[in-house]
Amino acid sequence: MYQASIDRQQDRPSAFVLLLPLLFVLSGTMIRFLAFRYAQPDADWTNYFGAMCRWDCSWYVSMAQRGYDTFPVPGRVNAGNWAFFPFYPMLVGLIGKLIPLPTIVLASLLSIITAYAAVVVAWPLLGRNIRAYTLYAAFILSGPLSMYFTTFFTEVMFVLLTTLTFVHLSRGNYLGAAGFTALLSATRIVGVFASLSIGVQALLDWRRDTGSWKGWLGGLLAQPRLVLAIFISPLGLFVYVAFLHYWMGDGLAFSHVQRAWGRQISNPGMYLWTGLTSWSTTPGQLLTNSQILALSAVVGLFLTGVLAWRRQWSAAAFALLAIVIPLAAGLASMMRFMAAMAPLTITAATLVARWRWLFVVSLIGLLAGAWFSTLAWFGGNVALV
């Protein structure tokens, strides 16, 4: 108990840990704003948050304002907004009832706050390594893909809740992890796989504490807090299914509506191979969008392998399912999905931070890359969708 208390005290962020991400909040906002002014010189500067709202962002804005549809929306590829899970848009909508700001402005500010919180709470998972923490803060708040975490996308909430889940798992707090997993499963469908991580971690903890696998099933079932945690963790998904059944008569509408985007369930390996071998026929183009998306998945699978090599089995199991399941429906949004996988980006930060020269090069690359990726964002590059 005394040692656990010491560990919690060490996990508490220092003033440096609290202040460093603020520097990247400022630098990231400046880079993205200047890119906005460069890409749209005639636009009113007050429309910055609105201009950053692209792709799925407009769906979330309408959800926060009006809730869920009961039928496909004209002008939106005959799709309904049931594909998008409710927790973050609902939270923005509720706060919007109290704070009279335009929805996209409120959501963007809330996303920046959430991203800052996600970085701070990741401190213990980064091994309290300053260089790794710096890279992670730069990636989330000021990096090439920071637009996902600073405008109205659910990825930022997914990162925060995933991080909190694994922080509580690292402390053996199954109920705390289950509470955040329940919210996670109401944020994106793959969030429900964190329930498996709770079970895997409990099994590993049993093996560590007893020194044997003997009697593991009875031993785990004899822990009421663990059993309660397993029941709580997928509640977000179950509540959403129940709501859809009540609202429109199809509890699995979030899955069925994927047809409107042309997604078909197939062999994920086939999708991956097809993407990797989709060579460009455009002179001067190094990689096609399909190859970029496929390479994002390959990097994700490699980092999942690193998690397994480090024997971080609960995180590896979650990451593997969160990659393979979306990949079975195609490569669309794969870069966004990988960017929001906190166990993977945290692992990448710890790997790169091992060498000082690579840390410096990577930090410069992250900040410089934010400029070019933001221009690509405004330019409609579909690899970023």
TrEMBL record:
The keyword Transcription does not apply. Keywords: Endoplasmic reticulum, Glycosyltransferase, GPI-anchor biosynthesis, Membrane, Transferase, Transmembrane, Transmembrane helix. One of its GO terms (molecular function) is alpha-1,6-mannosyltransferase activity. GO terms for biological process: GPI anchor biosynthetic process. It is a multi-pass membrane protein. The chain crosses the membrane at residues 15-35, 104-126, 133-154, 174-204, 225-248, 292-309, 316-337, 357-378. Pathway: Glycolipid biosynthesis; glycosylphosphatidylinositol-anchor biosynthesis. GO terms for cellular component: mannosyltransferase complex; membrane. InterPro entries: PIG-V/Gpi18 (IPR007315). It is found in: Endoplasmic reticulum membrane. PANTHER family: GPI MANNOSYLTRANSFERASE 2 (PTHR12468:SF2). This is Mannosyltransferase (PIG-V).
